[in-house]
Amino acid sequence: MIKRCLTILLASLITISIMANPDSKPKSDAHVVGHVTSNGEHLPFVNIVVKNTNVGTTTDQTGHYSLSNAPTGKQVLKAHFVGYKPQEIEVDLKPNETTEIKFDLQEDRIGLNEVVVTANRGETNRQDAAVIVNVLNAKLFQATNAVCLSEGLSYQPGLRVENNCQNCGFQQVRINGLEGPYSQILIDSRPIYSALSGVYGIEQIPVNMIDRVEVIRGGGSALYGSNAIAGTINIITKEPLHNSFDVTENYALIDGTTDDNTIHFNSSYVSDNRQAGFSMFASNRKRGSYDANGDGFSELGKIEGSGLGFRSYYKMSPYSKITATYHYLNEFRRGGNQFDLQPHETDITEQTEHRINGGELVLDLFTPGYANKLSTYVSAQQTLRDSYYGAGHDPNAYGNTTDLALVAGSQYTHQFDKLWLAPATLTTGAEYQLNNLHDKMPGYQRDLKQDVNIAGFFLQNEWRFNHAQLLLGARLDKHNLIDDAIISPRANLLIHITPKLQWRNTFSTGFRAPQAFDEDLHIMAVGGEVMLIQLADDLSTERSYSYSTSFDSYYSLGNIENNFMVEGFYTKLTDVFKVEEIGVDDQGNKLLERRNASGAKVMGINLENRMIFSPKYQLQMGFTLQQSRYLSPEAWSDDTSAELLETMPRSPETYGYMSFTASPWNRFKTYLSGTYTGSMLVPHYAGYIDQDVIKHTPSFVDLNLKFSYDVKITDGVLARFETGVQNLFNSYQTDFDKGESRDAGYMYGPMKPRTIFVGIKISNIL
Predict the structure, then answer these.
(1) The whole model's pTM is what?
(2) How many structural domains comprise the chain?
(3) Is the pLDDT at 729 greater than 90, yes or no?
């Protein structure tokens, strides 16, 4: 049935593409040539487009461009490039004539004109978005020396990444204190990142696959459906923009004992007329296991991973475009002890091997002037996992999991010159989501089959007044695990108090269906036994109601450009999911059950400040103060003497980040970055210790220092040499459990101890 649906949809896309192809149209012979400069210097690889069409080109290495067979008549040419303010010039293009147009761009050092797509399912300048959208880009990944997604996510307000297992390295990202399953992770705006992907996925995705990551805090179910309670993380893959290549190698030494080597390769090609483009990535990573306390058991597991993928597009006409993407990720990871033996011959082993295939096909159709846009898409990701989660030489702990996530739909956007009171943008669409999961572990008598089918319809309208924007919308979802359809509304009001001071107000909702989540698919060893999570028979849908208000200001202090944001947020959760220890099963395995608690509320303040002292010196920092409370005290252990929890575990009340870049000389850069994590409550289960307790953890400051130097090898080939230290002051947990009776989930603080690294990048663009 699935294959049949995909075949029909693919055939439809191809048919529409052929119909949209204007090969029979004569060439206009209207040509445009020119150059792009900034501060007297020519800029290479700047995008030049004819506005309201997809016709365009890019400047070459010398900053010059040539555009052939452009649409005739009165047109608007637009030049835009990351880090610069776009410039538009009106021009009258005539057949059989060549027109010269020169652009002079001004730097946009604070990022006001950065384009985002997550705010309203369409392209919007970040400054004009009705909700706050934070962006993680290549510069930040570069500054923090991140080699995978998880190593960069903590450098945004309200976000924090944590490691939850000493054996296998299960990681999750928290938004505003809420654990990983409360966040919706998207790949190119599609929800194909499933529960199984969430177990290890943020460490499996290499940074060279990513163009940028867009983050929205607060409920997002009105746009993207189930699970977008805490927020939305949208991973935008790299699109071909110009001809380029780069090869990067990064070698790290963890605590002076453990190797971590990563190789990345990227290449892209774009035709001279920008009608077609192709980009690809490849990656390979090998990390050894790390033992922090000398007990023979790992605190960081062994990883061997690789990836390969591409993104391509073809423009059939000035008003049609088809995009295809694909990625393949393969990863082996293992933690525990006795790595030279088979898993069932060891005291503890958690081992997985993933094979992930994913991709997307999108057809975009426009009308002249771009007043109408129709996008039809199908996106899917299949994950195959072989696993061993066992202790005590258990031969029955092997398992395998198959997972398919698919989304298909259409979205229509219409630009109104005036709808009732003001110009407006209407967005509507429908999509179908499918997730088929089968997790088998015969030795534990575990055979989890979960088929999720969701039909969704969304509608929203955004009005643009002179000094304000109002967005109202809702999404209707029919989830097969929920009896009634769920309506998720949203409302956003943006007021431009002054051209450089904005006030945003947001109301949004979210929901989580009673289904298995990422931690349910991770089996953890505690006290020499495995710990399993099951769902309560009467588990109900969890819902959220989020409110936020924020002030976003842009101002200058002398030559210093500033962007300061303060945001207050409040989220109320009803029928909140919690995990509670309930005893053991017939085989002696510890059992946890996912149940509904009375509810919870999360509130706090996010602060962010960006300071551009000059093009050579930049500082970005953020800080969060928050409270995460259950509405009534909740049990977390089957030990009746254990204290009840009023505060949600693993949710510090203070945390933050900073990133400073200095370029005192043209070729030399210094990066100082770091995160702060305040004290929090962490459950510590009996095994190595006598009884279950709640640990009040210390606070941590994790600082990184990095240096880079650029060298010209030949014309068009450059090299960058890098070195530095992560976790400079070795701020790391010191009270890990020891031996086979340990609680592998008793982890907190920075992800790894002091790590020294060196690297080299060879590219035609730095």
Answers:
(1) 0.89
(2) 2
(3) yes
